[in-house]
Design goal:
ten-stranded mixed sheet, alpha+beta, 21% strand, globular, Arc Repressor Mutant, subunit A, four-stranded antiparallel sheet, 355 residues, 2 domains, 39% helix
């Protein structure tokens, strides 16, 4: 393995030693497919994997919709929250593998209790925990920890990462090599289609899902091993979890705006669009954004795209055209930004950064 791929070894190890062998042996048999609420889950009459059980819970709060009000064809990842319960629903599916310990995962008005070796497929619109909510199975005293591998659609590809909960603390994206993005429309398609098949339960869905799940996980492993995945600099200890932002309604609007920008770098981004997303007028948003970040909106977006492009130039062999598409600008504009900020071309930066 080359030096540039070593930081992603934790993900490779989990996929090689646990997840891919598990999927090869069991297919979808150890995957619990969630539903928004207990009655819908019960109507599926699905057979639960061994050592998995369900308990009921009463929600403490009502659903609060998060209206996207965005333009340009993009939307907020989160479309609703249950504030007192620490739950939210998203516009995309989440696939989670338990790779250590035991988990009690709330989904709407019920809780799925499972252990290492099980997985959960959470369709879009299903209430599930935010990144700040502990999901450790507390009934197992002295063994209150869990490790989870998650994957979600992300732009034109997917993102995957490891979560950890131990001794009352929950964290993710803190350790190098434990999260990555990959520009893979195929992986995105596999995950979306897997979810559609699992929810529809059309004829022969089990065989289709088994094949899609194995194709997805082996593709993730290959892309990471062959250095087609990269660790994005936007996912830091203080960054917002890409699938389920903690305490969404309590975050500073500018913090939410920054998270939105980071999520949609590959899309056209305008001040009006982002201001509408955080429910602020254009003028007020412009003032507050500069006051909080010390930069104009255009400057912030440009520098974020430059940062992402620099990571991709160093960590991948992608062409300038592919990198430009990933960060949401034209190749000509990318070259202009590099000359303005770095006084060199992207190709020259790549060569220099690797020396």
């Amino acid at each position: 393995m080359s030096k540039s791929s070593e930081p992603l070894w934790p993900l490779i190890e989990v996929l090689q030693r646990q997840i891919v062998p598990q999927v090869q042996r069991h297919g979808m048999n150890n995957v619990i497919v969630g539903a928004p609420f207990w009655q819908q889950f019960q109507r599926r009459e699905a057979v639960l994997p061994e050592d998995v059980f369900i308990t009921r819970q009463t929600l403490k709060s009502k659903k609060t919709a998060i209206k996207s009000r965005s333009s340009g064809g993009t939307k907020s990842l989160v479309n609703a929250v249950w504030p007192k319960d620490g739950l939210c629903s998203t516009i995309m599916p989440v696939l989670m593998f338990v790779v250590g310990g035991r988990v009690a995962l709330p989904l709407g008005d019920y809780v799925v209790h499972c252990r290492s070796g099980h997985a959960l497929l959470i369709p879009a619109g299903t209430p599930h925990p935010s990144g700040s909510l502990l999901c450790t199975e507390s009934s197992h005293a002295g063994n209150e920890f869990n490790d989870m591998f998650s994957v979600i659609p992300w732009g034109r590809g997917v993102a995957c990462w490891l979560n950890h909960t131990k001794n009352g603390e929950h964290w993710s994206h803190r350790t190098p090599g434990e999260n990555c993005h990959m520009f893979s429309t195929k992986a995105n398609f596999y995950l979306e289609t897997l979810t559609e098949e699992a929810v529809s339960r059309a004829s022969h869905f089990q065989q289709h899902c088994d094949g899609l799940l194995l194709a997805l996980m082996t593709l993730l492993l290959r892309e990471i091993e062959e250095q087609h995945a990269f660790q994005p600099i936007l996912l830091t200890e203080t960054a917002i979890d890409p699938s389920t932002p903690p305490n969404l309604l309590e975050q500073n609007p500018i913090t939410r705006a920054q998270a939105y920008i980071n999520s949609y770098l590959a899309s056209p981004l305008t001040i009006d669009q982002v201001a509408a997303h955080v429910f602020m007028s254009r003028a007020y948003f412009t003032r507050q954004f500069r006051k909080t970040t010390g930069k104009s909106f255009i400057q912030y977006v440009t520098e974020r795209r430059l940062q992402e492009a620099k990571v991709l130039l160093h960590d991948t062999n992608w062409s300038i055209e592919k990198i430009s598409e990933f960060v949401g600008i034209t190749p000509t504009r990318l070259r202009h930004i590099f000359f303005e900020y770095q006084r060199q071309t992207p190709s020259a930066y790549r060569e220099q950064s690797r020396q």
